[in-house]
Amino acid sequence: MAGRLTNWAGNLVFSASEVVRPGSVGELAGVVGRERSVRVLGSGHSFNDVADSEGVLVSVAGLPEVVDVDSAAGVVKVAAGMRYAEVARRLDEKGLSLHNMASLPHISVAGSVATGTHGSGDGNGSLATAVVEVEMVTAEGDVVTIRRGEHEAFDGAVVALGALGVVTSLTLEVGPSFQVRQQVFEGLPFEALDDHFDAIMSGAYSVSLFTQWHGDTVGQIWMKRRDGDPDVPEDGVFGAAPATEPRHPIPGVSAEHCTQQLGVPGPWHERLPHFRPGFTPSAGEELQTEFLLPRSRILPALHALRAIQDRIAPVLQISEIRTMTADDLWLSPSQGRDTVGVHFTWIKDTEAVIPVVSLIDDHLGPYDARPHWGKVFTTSAETLRSRYEHWDDFHGLMRHHDPSGKFANAYIRRLFGKD
After folding, report:
1. Same domain for 227 and 371?
2. Is residue 302 within 8 Å of residue 319, measured between CB atoms?
3. Given this model, what pLDDT does residue 75 score?
4. What's the pLDDT score for residue 1?
5. Does residue 42 belong to any structural domain of this protein?
6. Over the chain (419 residues), what is each successive 10-residue block's mean pLDDT?
7. Using CA of residue 336, residue 415, residue 40, residue 290, what is the dihedral sign?
8. What is the β-pairing status of strands 56-59 and 38-41?
């Protein structure tokens, strides 16, 4: 398999000597117990080597699909390799919902949680904040369960980068199903963010800003309102006018793959993502980076980006700005602070993109930016350690669960060293 398997974007060829797809947790435990080096492949939507392995690469997509609802407890147990689109559809059929979705519903549940992936909304935490229980296979091949409120290390075991074991299932909090209406507004002046950022981002259940970092306008506001929430003013939002037809985040690209807009109500899982599950948005012709910043420092950070927008724009397809609430998960980019994510979808040209990512890292460094774990970044391990108060706690947890480094790879060693 080596030399043939790539990630979704095609910018990484996995170096694994073998790829296995166990059909049961017992079979998976046997693989993990006997192998020297193991990493887990989710949906392949990471843009760096977080999932790569010098030994065996394990796909959990072959494990039996599980969507086991406990209505009395308000939770659902989900197989790790399932995609959010399928989980969400099944929950909605039962009158239930997750609190949020990422922009792409195609991604796997366990992979998204492990890297701190998120949706948007002033009152919404990342996808990982829904987790109440983690089931995983440890380095010895044992199956263990770590529960919120019962295990001191729970907050370190959720966003864990695959470094503690192979996650087989996650139990997530659920709520009642709800309807969402999505509207797009165009032409928001950048200067409106200085005076109205909080009002704009709190104007709906989920809000995204899209910009190409040129000129004096942000570009688009995507507002996703729960049915029953107040209507957005008919004349627009702080100078941005309502779109008269469906839009793609990238101006000029067809909106056929995007979720329903123009205020048409629909199920939560068909509106909270930006893209429909039946379509592949870009066929992987892109790279991605995201920096997550303290909400309290976002305005000077945005001005710092505007100061270098002439370097950003030539290699950019689109940039998205979203908000999420603080959490307690040790390696979550939102740990300890309400957060704003500034996401960059680049052209697929690593040589041209990396210097710009490094430049952005330098300019956002004074604002304590944390990179998304699954995307392209150049931030040093020393810098990251200074920005995570539980960095050493997680390192200790990793040594406890995996003393031999079975689940380590080049990515983990860059962050935490070789011990």
Report:
1. yes
2. no
3. 98
4. 41
5. yes
6. 71 86 96 94 89 92 96 97 96 97 93 96 97 97 96 96 97 98 96 96 97 94 92 84 96 94 96 89 83 98 98 98 98 98 97 98 98 97 97 96 95 90
7. positive
8. parallel
Q: What is the largest CA-CA distance in the chain?
A: 64
d(Cα 208, Cα 111) in Å, to the nearest integer?
23
Give the span between the Cα atoms of 378 and 347, in whole angstroms: 17
In angstroms, the Cα distances linking 382 to 49, 210, 329, 388 are 19, 31, 20, 10
| Per-residue model confidence (pLDDT) at position 419 | 66
Please tell me the total count of domains within the chain.
3
Tell me, yes or no, whether 134 and 276 share the same domain: no
Q: How many degrees, rounded to 5, is the angle at CA 102 between CA 98 and CA 107?
A: 100
- Candidates 179, 165, 240; CA nearest to 210 is 240
pLDDT on residue 282: 62
Range of the domain at 55: 18-61
Looking at the structure, tell me whether residues 98 and 216 fall in a common domain: no
CATH number at residue 173: 3.30.465.10
DSSP 183-232: EEEE--BTHHHHHHHHHHHTSSSEEEEEE-S-TTB--EEEEEEETTSPPP
* Residues 158 and 187 reside in one and the same domain: no
Residue 261 lies in a domain: yes
Locate tokens 């959010």: which residue?
Answer: 84
Amino acid at 63: L
Same domain for 209 and 272? yes
Q: By three-state DSSP, how is residue 400 classified?
A: helix
End residue of a domain, out of 177, 192, 227: 177
Same domain for 69 and 52, yes or no, is no
- Is residue 395 domain-resident? no
- Same domain? 189 vs 299: yes
Q: Which residues contact 271 (CB under 8 A, 6 or more apart)?
A: 180, 181, 182, 224, 259, 260
pLDDT at position 44: 84
Collapse the DSSP code of 268 into the 3-class scheme (helix H, G, I; strand E, B; otherwise coil) and give the result. helix
